[in-house]
Specification:
The complex is a heterodimer of chains A (291) and B (277). Chain A is built from eleven helices and eleven strands. By secondary structure, chain A is an alpha/beta fold. In chain A, the strands form two sheets. In chain A, strands 1, 2, 3, 4, 6, 7, 8, 9 and 11 form a nine-stranded mixed β-sheet that branches. The longest helix of chain A is centred in the first third of the chain and has 19 residues, at 2-20. The two termini of chain B are 28 Å apart. In chain B, helix 4 packs across helix 5 and helix 6 (159-167) packs antiparallel against helix 7 (172-183). Chain B has a single domain (2-276), classed as MetI-like (MetI-like fold, Orthogonal Bundle), CATH 1.10.3720. Chain B has helices at 2-30, 52-83, 86-101, 104-123, 131-155, 159-167, 172-183, 185-201, 204-209, 227-234, 243-276; strands at residues 39-40, 48-49. Classes of the chains: A alpha/beta (291), B mainly alpha (277). Chains A and B meet through helix 3, helix 4, helix 6, strand 7 and helix 7 of A and strand 1 and helix 4 of B.
Chain lengths: 291, 277
C-alpha cells in the first residue's frame, strides 16, 4: 500500500515538473521540420475558424502539433498574460487595463488582424419589426426601452438576451452598441450562442445578438434585423460586403495576439492564416476575409 | 486512517485557500461593498460586486426545488419502504439511483429543450428561462438523495413499533402515517437537508436554464442568477488577483459555508436519529 502511495506521489511530482515547462520555455527558432507544439486559446467565436485553419495547416505540415481551446477572449488574454498560451485568439481589442498588465508581466504584445465578424441582431420570426437604429438597440440593452410597442413591435415586454460577461461578444456589444453603458440587470445572460438562437426561436418577445455565421446557420428559425447607423441612415442587412465596406455598424475585427518576438513555428502558422488558403477558409466558415 | 484524515486536511486547505484569495477584497473595497444589490462585474464606468442578487437567486432556486422535491421524494420513500413488494423495489431502487447518476449538463440540456418551453406555455410566460425552470431541473437531482436516505430511515424504524400499532387495531395506512413516518422524521429531515445541499451547490444545470439575470426578485417567474452559475460563468475570464477575482472567491466562501452548514446540520440530526433508533 505504502509503495503505491510513494509511486503515485512520484508520478504527480514528475508530471508537475514536466508540465511546468510552459510554451514560453520552448526553444525559439527551432530547426524547421521539427515537431513543435503551439497552443491557441481564447475567443469562443473564433474556435470554429481556428480549428479549420489548424486542420488545413496540419495537412501540409504534418509535424506541427497545435491545440485549440475556447473559453472566451478574456480567458485567452489572461492566458497570454500569464504565459500559458502561445497565441491568444480574441474577438475584441485588448483593454488598456490588460495592456498595462501585459507590460507588468513582461509580455510584449503583437496584434494581428486575421478576419472580420459581423454581429447579427435576431428576433423571433413572428415579430413584425424589420429594422432598428443603433440607438434604439442600445436602449433595449441598457433597459431604457422595455416595451416592444414603443419601437413598432408587438405588445409586451422585451426579453433581452445576451452572452455571458466572459464572452468577447458581450464586451464588443457593450462598447459599440451600448456606448459603454452597463447592461440592464434584467438582461438574461446565456452561456452559449446556440442557447441564444434556441431561445429567440422559442420566445416571441425575445431579442439577441449572434455572429453572422451563426445567424446564417439558424436560417428561418430566427429573423435577422436590418440596422440603421442613425435615424436618417438606411437600414443595412448584415452581409459580407456590408461588413467589409463598413456600412454595417455592428462589425468587428478578429485578432490573434502573440508575445513578440514569436518563434518560427508560430509565425509560419500566422502567415498561413493570412495567406490565400487561410482567407478562403475564413469565407467558408461564415466570416469576412481581411485580404 | 491516513486516507480518511486526508479528506479532512483537504477540506481545511480549501477553506484556507478561499480565505486567502478573498481576504484582499475584504481589506480594500471593504466587505460592505458586497452588501449591494447590483452585480456588475464588467463595466466601462464602475464595477459593482453586490452579492444581494446572487444570494437571493440561490436561495430562491433552492427553496423552490426543495418545495417540489420534498413531497415527491418523501411520498416515494414511504411507498418503497412500506407498500412496495420485493419485486417492485428491485425495479424502482436502481432506476432512482440511475436518476442521481445523470450528468448535470445532460439535465441542463433537457431543461433548456423540454422544461423551459413547458414552463413557458404552462404558466403563460414570455420566456421559459426562469428561477422555476431551474428549480424543477434541480428537484430532479435532489429527489434521488431524498428518496434513498428517507427510505433507509423509514426502514430503520423498529419492527416492534409497527407490530404494536397493528395489534392495537390500527390499519396499515394509519400505522404508516401516525407511527412509522413520525418515528423516522429526523432521518427524513436529514435527507431533505442533504438534498438541499446538492441543489445549492449545483452549477451547470442552473447556468443553462435560469436566465442568469442578476436581479433581486422573489418571483419564481423571473430569471435568477445563482452564486454557482456566477462563479462558473465568470471565473474563466477574470485576471488573476483582480478585484473581480477576489469577489468571486468571496462568493465561493459564502457558498461553501452554506453547504457546509447544511451538511453539518443533516449529519447531526442523522447521528441523533441512529442513536435513538
Amino acid at each position: 500500500m505504502r509503495t503505491i502511495t510513494v509511486l503515485a506521489v512520484a508520478a504527480v511530482v514528475l508530471a508537475t515538473l514536466t508540465s511546468g515547462c510552459g510554451p514560453s520555455n520552448q526553444p525559439k527558432n527551432a530547426a524547421p521540420g521539427q515537431p513543435q507544439h503551439i497552443t491557441i486559446k481564447g475567443s469562443d467565436t473564433m474556435v470554429q475558424l481556428v480549428t479549420a485553419w489548424v486542420e488545413s495547416y496540419m495537412k501540409t505540415n504534418p509535424s506541427a502539433d497545435i491545440s485549440v481551446t475556447g473559453g472566451g477572449s478574456g480567458t485567452g488574454i489572461s492566458a497570454l498574460l500569464n504565459k500559458t498560451t502561445d497565441i491568444c485568439s480574441s474577438s475584441r481589442e485588448m483593454s488598456e487595463k490588460e495592456i498595462t498588465q501585459a507590460t507588468q508581466n513582461g509580455v510584449k504584445l503583437r496584434q494581428v488582424d486575421v478576419a472580420r465578424d459581423g454581429l447579427a441582431v435576431i428576433v423571433n420570426p413572428a415579430n413584425p419589426l424589420n429594422e432598428l437604429t443603433l440607438e434604439q438597440l442600445g436602449k433595449i440593452y441598457t433597459g431604457a426601452s422595455a416595451q416592444w410597442k414603443d419601437l413598432g413591435g408587438p405588445d409586451g415586454e422585451i426579453i433581452v438576451l445576451s452572452r455571458e460577461s466572459s464572452s468577447g461578444t458581450y464586451v464588443f456589444f457593450q462598447e459599440h452598441v451600448l456606448k459603454k453603458q452597463d447592461y440592464s440587470p434584467k438582461a438574461r445572460l446565456l452561456p452559449t450562442t446556440s442557447a441564444i438562437v434556441q431561445s429567440v426561436g422559442d420566445d416571441a418577445l425575445a431579442i439577441g445578438y449572434v455572429g453572422l455565421g451563426y445567424a446564417a446557420e439558424a436560417g428561418a428559425k430566427v429573423k435577422v434585423l436590418s440596422i440603421k447607423a442613425d435615424a436618417a441612415a438606411p437600414g443595412v442587412v448584415p452581409s459580407e460586403k456590408a461588413v467589409l465596406d463598413g456600412s454595417y455598424s455592428i462589425a468587428r475585427p478578429l485578432y490573434f495576439y502573440v508575445n513578440d518576438p514569436a518563434n518560427k513555428t508560430i509565425d509560419t502558422f500566422i502567415q498561413f492564416c493570412l495567406g490565400a488558403g487561410g482567407q478562403k477558409i475564413v469565407r467558408e466558415i461564415g466570416y469576412v476575409p481581411v485580404k | 486512517m491516513g486516507a480518511s484524515s486526508m479528506s479532512i486536511v483537504v477540506v481545511a486547505l480549501i477553506f484556507l485557500f478561499l480565505f486567502r484569495e478573498s481576504a484582499p477584497f475584504v481589506r480594500d473595497p471593504g466587505i460592505s461593498s458586497l452588501a449591494g444589490s447590483r452585480w456588475v462585474p464588467v463595466s466601462f464606468t464602475k464595477q459593482l460586486f453586490g452579492i444581494g442578487p446572487l444570494v437571493t437567486g440561490s436561495a430562491l432556486v433552492t427553496l423552490l426545488a426543495t418545495l417540489v422535491a420534498l413531497p415527491f421524494g418523501v411520498c416515494s420513500a414511504i411507498y418503497i419502504a412500506e407498500f412496495a413488494g420485493p419485486f417492485e423495489r428491485e425495479i424502482l431502487k436502481p432506476f432512482i439511483e440511475l436518476l442521481a447518476a445523470i450528468p448535470s449538463v445532460v439535465l441542463g440540456f433537457f431543461g433548456l429543450a423540454i422544461v423551459a418551453p413547458l414552463v413557458k406555455s404552462g404558466f403563460g410566460l414570455s420566456s421559459g428561462l426562469t428561477a422555476l425552470t431551474g428549480a424543477l431541473v434541480l428537484a430532479l437531482m435532489a429527489i434521488p438523495t431524498i428518496i434513498s436516505i428517507s427510505e433507509d430511515a423509514i426502514r430503520n424504524v423498529p419492527r416492534s413499533y409497527r407490530e404494536a400499532s397493528i395489534a392495537l387495531g390500527a390499519s396499515e395506512v394509519q400505522t404508516v402515517m401516525r407511527v412509522t413516518t413520525p418515528a423516522a422524521l429526523s432521518g427524513i429531515f436529514a435527507a431533505v437537508t442533504l438534498g438541499m445541499g446538492r441543489v445549492i451547490g449545483e452549477t451547470m444545470a442552473v447556468l443553462m436554464v435560469t436566465g442568469n439575470a442578476a436581479i433581486m426578485s422573489l418571483s419564481p417567474f423571473d430569471p435568477a442568477r445563482t452564486m454557482t452559475a456566477t462563479i462558473a460563468a465568470e471565473m474563466g475570464e477574470v485576471t488573476y488577483g483582480s478585484e473581480h477575482y477576489q469577489a468571486l472567491f468571496c462568493v465561493g466562501l459564502i457558498l461553501l459555508s452554506a453547504t457546509f452548514a447544511l451538511n453539518l446540520a443533516a449529519q447531526r440530526v442523522l447521528a441523533r436519529h441512529t442513536r435513538n433508533g
